[in-house]
């Protein structure tokens, strides 16, 4: 056990002590002095019915492919596999495992709560692109809404909660409310989207190229 | 107790962030970066070690939120300098220069691994591993890169390595650079070399379509395929030696998969930019 836990580990410990137990498709269980991670749908399963792992790095393997064996580059996609339990001895190892399942989720949440995060408006993210993605700077606000609607649905695409507007003063209002709810249930740590990801930037490029090709 | 080198003491309270390209299509693209990070975590040299990616998670824009340390070394796990290391990475990390001071934190942006001279050690080791027992004087060593690419200058990095290997006294029959898309072309490997044994090492950070499929097809050791990464992709590295064009050809996985890359990352940390001295009063 660490004598001087790092600030982020402390933040996780404080959240757990306050009853925090959910993040994305994971549930966190208290098991004696340690912690256990499972898919939330396996919450009631008997230990013996699940494959037991005990290293934080196992999380990277568990999160890598979906149930069909398809690669999961987007870790908040609602396709985490079931059938495993990850037994961890302390908060530090729990943090490491969470960093593999939902990279930067803890850090983003701590930063936003502490007022240290500055979400990038979507049009700003597009405006700073260079090279092959520079063309995304041409998306107008309606294009942005279209691309987000097609790629960021909470139920089917991605369980991150979007913290950014379309542009300064132009809120994102075309998705279901849960997508922009940064304070969901009491026991849940939201997986925040502070900056549009490379998948959305790539989708935006495809969108604008199609639009220009179709233009008269 | 072993005496610690001065730089190692500086590392103990610092974070190491290793940057990779990653891929939304190739699950093996980020694997070496994760593996080198895990190796460096095990060595316990840094307070924390994280990875960040262009096309995977954590992204470049969010990795700094994962860090507790005030001193951060950033090493691009890229094979060369170019568009990514010069433009994209500094922009996404919001760096102000080689040394960035932000919010009480100092971020030192190191050179990419592929341009460090110590890559020579890895190339020599890899050649010995895949052609065990073959005398170097009977080997033509071919270092293969992409060639004309908008995003990287691996050509310069590879030519530099060829010179370093020649100067190392390693005594290969010859050492040549070759490329997928520019002269000298790897497809003409038998014209570029004379020794009975030819060792081909892809100068890439990770294995993927180029090393699994494209280069083997250009070499003539594989048939052309639809281009999707197949389940048997690593097989091509396990069938050495190949007998063709009156030679024995030994084909290696990408050099970036070598476990010694972790040491090259440390070499770049060791060469990290210093904090500029404050301007003196006039």
Whole-number count of domains of chain A: 2
Poorly predicted regions of chain A are none
For the record, the CATH architecture of the largest domain in chain A stands as 2-Layer Sandwich
pLDDT under 50 segments of chain B (min length 5)?
1-5
Output the helix-strand order of chain A. Answer: HEEEEHEHHHHEEH
Distance between the termini of chain B: 47 Å
Topology:
The complex is a heterodimer of chains A (216) and B (282).
Chain A: H1 7-17, E1 22-23, E2 26-31, E3 34-39, E4 51-53, H2 58-62, E5 84-88, H3 91-101, H4 105-113, H5 122-127, H6 141-151, E6 161-162, E7 192-193, H7 198-214
Parallel strand pairs in A: 4-5, 6-7
Antiparallel strand pairs in A: 1-2, 2-3, 3-5
Helix pairs in contact in A: 6-7
Chain B: H1 6-11, E1 14-20, H2 31-43, E2 48-53, E3 71-76, H3 83-92, E4 99-102, E5 105-109, H4 119-130, E6 139-145, H5 154-167, E7 174-179, H6 189-192, E8 197-202, H7 209-219, E9 242-244, E10 247-251, H8 261-270
Helix pairs in contact in B: 4-5
Explain the overall architecture.
- The complex is a heterodimer of chains A (216) and B (282).
- With 216 residues, chain A is an alpha/beta fold.
- Chain A has two domains: 7-103, Gyrase A, domain 2 (2-Layer Sandwich); 117-214, Alpha-Beta Plaits, CATH 3.30.70.
- In chain A, 32% of the residues lie in helices and 12% in strands.
- In chain A, the strands form two sheets. Chain A has a five-stranded mixed beta sheet.
- In chain A, helix 6 (141-151) crosses helix 7 (198-214).
- In chain B, helix 4 packs across helix 5.
- Helices cover 28% and strands 20% of the residues of chain B.
- In chain B, the strands form two sheets. A five-stranded mixed beta sheet of chain B has the order 2-1-3-5-4, with helices on both faces. In chain B, strands 7-6-8-10-9 form a five-stranded mixed beta sheet.
- Chain B contains eight helices and ten strands.
- Chain B starts with 5 loop residues before the first helix and ends in a 12-residue tail after the last helix.
- Chain B folds into two domains: 6-113 and 260-270, Rossmann fold (3-Layer(aba) Sandwich); 115-257, Rossmann fold (3-Layer(aba) Sandwich).
- With 282 residues, chain B is an alpha/beta fold.
- At the A-B interface, helix 1, helix 4 and helix 7 of A face helix 3 of B.
